[in-house]
Amino acid sequence: MNLYHIYKNEQHTLLYHGIMYLLIGVGMLLVVEELFYFPLLFFIPAMTNLYLSRSIKKEIRKSTRLFYEEIPVSSHSLIGVNTKEAFYYLKSNGWSSYSLQRTSLIDSPKQYVFQRKDKMPITLYKWSRRVIIAHEEKNIEYRLKYHSLTAVEWVNEENGETILLYKGNKRWILNYKGKNRLSLQKGFLPQSFQRLFDSHHSHVTFFEAYSEADDWLLVFLWLVDSDYFLTS
Fold first, then answer.
1. What pairs with residue 125 in β-bridges?
2. Which tens digits make up the pLDDT trace of 99-132?
């Protein structure tokens, strides 16, 4: 899926929600005339969604370039895009390699699916201080050992493996098995792409120690991204 398709889906979702809230508000206004002020509350999210669906046209115009033009793919970075439907990791030409989508409305645990291009998807179960990843036909459990504004540490109590995310110079760095694998930063992209992506997109950089087998570690970057509002 290209960034163009992602924003078109986002626009249709916002438009659908806006129309539904509008119809519910109008319907309740006709039924409960005496409590007219209550149905009017539905017009607030209706107008908000309709406004957002219109304002996203700017993003669609910019992403059209990525869809129709041949832009070289950067081999050492990804771009994170957060939408209502899912969180996407894109290549620098706008095509998504990974996406992470919530599949359950239950809060304990929250359930997600991490889709990977040309690979089997990974199921993720998230509690407040615990994460279970169904990876390679087995469940790997990590517990949150420590977290602060500058560091987050996850520990696998079965084998003692540690995933450490610490804040460096304007970026979060993911260290796994004693080696820096990935880094995450907000609102900074190569100059050629800065005009296409707004500040609410995150930039993921691969270190030399990173390999394709480590792509499941992107889940922990996403956890930092969402918990610390890097893409908000």
1. 111, 132
2. 999 998 878 889 999 999 888 999 999 998 899 9
Nearest in space to 192 (alpha carbons), one of 73, 33, 54: 73
Q: Which residue, chain included where needed, has tokens 């792409």? A: 193
Q: Give the separation between CA 21 and CA 45, rounded to whole angstroms.
A: 7
This prediction has a pTM of 0.84
The answer for 136, left when phi > 0, alpha when psi is -120 to 50, beta otherwise, is: left
| Per-residue buried b or exposed e for 13-24, using 16+ beta carbons within 10 Å of the residue's own CB | bbbebbeebbee
Residue 33, classified by CB atoms within 10 Å of its CB into exposed (0-12), middle (13-18) or buried (19+), is exposed
3 state SS of 77: strand
State CA 60 to chain mean position distance.
18
* Dihedral sign (CA 150, 161, 125, 79): positive
Q: Provide the β-strand partners of residue 75.
A: none
Helix (H) or strand (E) segment spanning residue 220: helix 218-227
CB distance 147 to 153 below 8 Å: yes
- Residues near 198 by beta carbon (within 8 Å), at least 6 away in sequence: 59
